[in-house]
Design a protein that fits this description.
The chain has three helices and no strands. The protein is mainly α and 94 residues long.
Length: 94
């Protein structure tokens, strides 16, 4: 939903960078990745799209904090927005 904080350009950029980093280090990019045990590895789809159900049968990753598949609402990695205030404040500080 555009207009929310997680859609700010800097949040989207941070989420995109984190998603790709964790996928490379702890997900499918990890040399020990085992497609038969995806629950032991980072799932970029769950990170991006979120999993609101604690016991989603389609979710691959188990959140160690909850012991369930719950991931929250997701983290957008594209479609960031820029506010006019960010531009105006930047221009005023020059």
């Amino acid at each position: 939903m555009p207009g929310k904080h997680e859609y700010r350009w800097y949040e989207v950029d941070a989420s995109r960078r984190a998603a790709h980093y964790f996928d490379k280090k702890y997900g499918k990019g990890n040399k020990n990745y085992d497609s038969n045990k995806p629950e032991d590895f980072f799932d970029i789809d769950s990170f991006v799209n979120g999993v609101m159900n604690h016991y989603d049968k389609n979710a691959k990753y188990i959140n160690p904090r909850w012991g369930t598949t719950y991931q929250g609402a997701g983290n957008p990695i594209s479609g960031g927005e820029v506010s006019i205030w960010e531009i105006l404040v930047s221009l005023l500080t020059i």
